[in-house]
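Office hours follow-up: a student asked to see two folded examples consecutively, so here they are.
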Amino acid sequence: MHKVIAFLLLIGVLGQSGLGQEVRERTDGFLREVFQVANSDTALKDGPYNLFYKGEILEKGHYCEGHKCGKWQYFSFGSFFEYEYDYDADSLTRMVPHEDASYPPGDHPCLFNGSPFIPYLFIVNNVFFPEEANSQGLAGKTVLTLEIDSEGIITDRYISQSNLDIFARVVLEASQKFPSDWRWLPARKKGVNVADKFEMAIIFEQ
């Protein structure tokens, strides 16, 4: 089975805000952004921002001259709430409880700086189901582990679990293509940012 991914990039002016700022839309496959741009520099997002996947909300917040500001809310596939982060206070304000761990106030695990669905979607869109596995009717699960430093930057990546080497290879290769400007919110312990791991489980099904 071969998969061809087609991307459509469309930027259009939808209207004007009350402050005279342009409201724009950008579409990339099933992802759709709706945002305002600064009057002084239309390359900068400035104002309310929303990101949708197939019409379902993934991210909503506010930009201040190209930087995230105030409280942002992030959702997984199906618009299920995941967490809220206050960029002005540099703190996590709400998070869905984790089944395997609990965190005292002010502490949290490593989080993708955006909807947690985005990295998964990227992997899915950049992984070709191996022909060898497809012809043999094979399926399985591969876990990609990212080492994230205290600045929110990937320092290492590896496959920590996989039932087939061929699945491990294609997932690791896809992760090498992550956009260079992606950042993670580093884990916080006792109020201090610390290095941590971020895991992604990818399921291969026929």
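And the second, which I mentioned at the end of office hours:
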Amino acid sequence: MPVVVYGITPCDQVRKTLAWLNANGVDHRFHDFRRDGLSGESLERWCSHVPWNALLNKRGQTWRGLPEVRRRQVVDQSSAIELLLEQPTLVKRPVIEIEDGLLLGFSIDRIDEALHRHGLAPPDRVHGDNGAGRHPARDRAGATAASPAAGPAPGPVRPEKPAGR
């Protein structure tokens, strides 16, 4: 399968990615780190596309929960891979393999561009709200968006913030 999404089910960015791929009819497979594991071969392959420190999620609870001495031991690709094999949830998510390419994180534009580059793009891309669940052809007030012939649909209507906040 040319598109594989790696991550964990509870991750919001993984869920958005999977929702967008599903909404756009993109054939893909999901690989859950917790259920399906993570191999050193995969990490080595990913490090051939992106720097090792880009794969390491230092913003999450798992990283913050590591002892300081363990965090300081991560100084190169080899030590990062060792830690990622011990703690797969430290991998920045989602990791998206599209044929011979690799993307980190959720971005509709980057995913769409990569799918086009590999001839896998959906014919009628759903724009919407980054795949987070709202109907893409409706704004927040529930009105139907413009037809495709009239140009792109308007963005969502956002209420103004109250003064003083």
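Two things to take away from it. The radius of gyration is 19 Å. The mean pLDDT is 81.
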